[in-house]
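Q: Given only this backbone (217 positions), what sequence would you predict?
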């Protein structure tokens, strides 16, 4: 409807058509010149404002902020794909070169408490879901990407990984983001160290690297 349209300026010449005013041709030309110069002035001011904003964003302090990096990740997503992995079932692979110390992907899922995570883990086992994607954020917050996650849940563990996970805080909300430790080539698998706590029931590690620890926990 008309109410949903944005505001836009109407030139004096167009207004006069609706007002049925007969103005001399010279006056009309003068009005058009004024409108044109005014529009150019507005555009010039907007360009100046944009340059000032870019200058501020270009400062080291702002460029290093987690908020800006996360916004860059959202607007300039890395090209990734999932496929069969030599480590374990499915994995995540780079479809473009990734430089060192870049945000690769955010680990997305549902934020739940420890008690809820324990109940879900038991329910997933009863339902025959072999893998649950529970990522601990802090002492009582866990991200569950089992059913509501993105491609980050396919990233496999490796004892000598090319990425690492980092918890960042954006507007009082904690997020998990995967960063690259080193340059990553096209079709190279994305991996990071799960850093599971030590337990008696060992989970075998299948990364196959020279420095493999043998178990995930």
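A: Predicted residues:
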């Amino acid at each position: 409807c008309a109410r949903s349209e944005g505001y836009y300026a109407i030139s004096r010449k167009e207004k006069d058509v609706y007002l049925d005013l007969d103005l001399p041709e010279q006056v009309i030309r003068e009005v058009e010149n004024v409108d044109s110069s005014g529009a150019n002035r507005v555009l010039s001011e907007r360009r100046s404002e944009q340059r000032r904003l870019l200058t501020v964003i270009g400062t080291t302090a702002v460029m290093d902020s987690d908020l800006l990096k996360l916004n860059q990740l959202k607007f300039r997503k890395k090209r990734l794909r999932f496929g069969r992995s030599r480590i374990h079932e499915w994995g995540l692979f780079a479809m473009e070169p990734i430089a060192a110390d870049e945000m690769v992907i955010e680990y997305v899922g549902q934020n739940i408490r420890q008690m809820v995570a324990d109940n879900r883990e038991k329910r997933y086992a009863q339902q025959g879901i072999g893998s649950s994607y529970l990522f601990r954020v802090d002492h009582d917050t866990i991200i569950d990407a089992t059913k509501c996650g993105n491609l980050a849940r396919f990233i496999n563990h490796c004892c000598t990984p090319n990425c690492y996970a980092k918890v960042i805080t954006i507007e009082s909300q904690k997020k998990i983001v995967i960063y690259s430790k080193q340059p990553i080539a096209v079709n190279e698998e994305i991996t990071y160290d799960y850093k599971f706590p030590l337990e008696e029931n060992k989970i075998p590690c299948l990364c196959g690297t020279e420095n493999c620890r043998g178990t995930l926990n």
